[in-house]
Design goal:
homodimer; alpha/beta; Rossmann fold; six-stranded parallel sheet
């Protein structure tokens, strides 16, 4: 049964600082009828991605900024409910990018991938096997090119990207230090994830000194999800040919650019031949299936685990998005809008 | 005739800020007799390298810091005057790293290369075909991987590294914008070097806006010799998959680390997949001969030109080193200590 209307969350004003419910509005719209070549998707999950923050202040991210009244961007898991596109049949489960919306319409172009029947929970396809997990995978494998025996520091290590990166680095034979805020997160990193060390950045006066204690011989790879302050603290600890993967900047997204920490410790770029490079995972889209197959095997073997914080109903998205930046919960933040088929 | 004594310039105190004559002392030492496997070299030229600055404040560079009383580091062109090493004969002309010193002793290890008889001025081997020229070559070819049609910005473009990089980028089919201080330098960049644009950073209020005028479609490669302030101004102008080659930091070497400009515009590392990477040219030492052959052909064809500022006598090195940072002259700064054979 396709309803006559659906709800979505739109941008009510350009956001300054920490996002909150007043920045968004919930709208009810008529469910569209798919035209020629189009497919109508009922969304089951929508993601809450810190990286989506930049587009909400009228600035370009790796995709153009949103206008006021646009549906807030997000990734989704959904099911086809009507199709005029031969590639998709009613009942197909898809990963796509429809935003904070109960329904989505696609002409099949852009990010729209059928979910294979690998007997994994549906939410894995928007989490550990979705954009955050693939960011971890390609950030370590392609951008950093990590090798067994290297020392890897992961920031925001209890988030979905960070926790996946930390575990992949362990699986690939690295020594891994996680940085996170709070004892609960650090206990999880050391206990359940088995990292070699976890640093509670809120509990240490000097992050650099804490890194020195945990990695006295220095750091080969910094997989950073937080931003300039942590990068600057880590730079003097980078080993020869060290790599900094700029995966996310959750600590900087809500700051005016004058308030962002300035990176000063750049001398090591020359002395230690450090390389710093960012990624947007869609550059690797052709390699998603192979990466997902490798990660799925790790999940089934119990080597790669994940945490989720699931909110109910599309109306919860604005507050849930605020929670992401406040670090109240950890793991992948998702909104569920329809029952799992 | 080998004299009984020679003069050298040693570090008299760790340097704070701009280096000057009081930071160094001239010593007279007995000329050593080469032992087994050793070779004695009379230096003809010594270089004045801004990159040598960091080692003079007790900090490690890509090689360990100097101690008080050590000979100041530099590259040299010299001639073998006595040899107990089968690989080198009296009369051989060599490029090496003996420092600000009239003589040097080597066991043949480290950087010591015979100069081929290519009928080029001897000073080319410490300049455009030496460390600065090779830094330009490998910075563009290996680190940046430049392609014809790309837009390249070179800072400190009237220096030996910068001018060589700017010309190589032109030879390889790029659009090249040079940044330098003063009209004389900029006139030379546009006139004799034929760059597409030259920006006098001392004459513009806003370097970023000046870059926007010269490169309205953005910048593919920043070949930076100056440091954080220019990198930060260029970052928002970088195009997709842009590369920043950290070749030198002449604007930052004399600053206390708290006074170094902090780089804030790091968002483009993700949105535009920017890569920033430093180099020390000796990582490419196995490829020096092929690079030098290619560059020598460009020199002979008149496509690659260079400027020199030659000082007479080893005693002039401390003031000459100060001049390097003050930008009084431009091109390769050299001290000549013996006649050209």
């Amino acid at each position: 049964m396709i309803p006559e209307t659906y709800r979505c969350v739109v941008l009510a004003r350009y956001i300054d600082g920490l996002p909150g419910p007043d920045d968004f509005a919930i709208e009810t719209r008529p469910v569209p009828t798919p035209g020629d070549g189009e497919v109508l998707v009922r969304n089951i999950y929508a993601s809450l991605d810190p990286g989506g923050r930049t587009r909400l202040s009228g600035e370009a991210s790796y995709i153009p900024p949103l206008s006021i009244g646009d549906i807030a961007g997000a990734f989704n898991i959904g099911q086809v409910v009507a199709s005029n596109n031969q590639a998709y049949a009613v009942g197909d489960l898809l990963a796509g990018a429809f935003g904070w919306s109960e329904f989505g319409l696609s002409d099949g172009r852009g990010y729209l991938a059928k979910i294979p029947d690998w007997e994994l929970p549906l939410s894995t396809w928007i989490g550990v096997l979705g954009v955050p997990g693939l960011t971890a995978y390609f950030g370590l494998k392609r951008v950093a090119g990590i090798s067994a025996g290297e020392t890897v520091v992961v920031t925001s290590a209890a988030g979905m990207v960070g926790a996946t990166a930390a575990q992949i680095a362990k699986i690939l034979g690295c020594r891994v230090i996680g940085v996170a805020g709070g004892t609960e997160k650090c206990d999880w990193l050391k206990g359940e994830l088995g990292l070699d060390a976890a640093i509670d950045y809120k509990a240490v006066d000097d992050l650099g000194a804490a890194i020195d204690d945990a990695a006295p011989d220095g750091v080969d790879v910094l997989f950073d999800n937080v931003g300039n302050r942590f990068v600057d603290a880590l730079l003097p600890r980078m080993r020869m040919n060290g790599r900094i993967v700029v995966s996310g900047q959750v600590g900087d997204y809500n700051l005016a650019s004058k308030d962002v920490h300035g990176i000063r410790n750049t001398r090591v770029f020359i002395t230690h031949r450090v390389r710093m490079e960012g990624l947007v995972v869609f550059d690797d889209i052709a390699d998603f299936p192979a990466a997902q197959a490798e990660m799925a095997a790790w999940i089934k073997a119990g080597k790669l685990i994940y945490r989720e914080k699931v909110y109910d109903g599309i109306e919860s998205a604005p507050q849930a998005f605020r929670d992401v930046f406040q670090g109240t919960y950890f793991g992948r933040h998702l909104v569920r809008m329809a029952p799992i088929p």
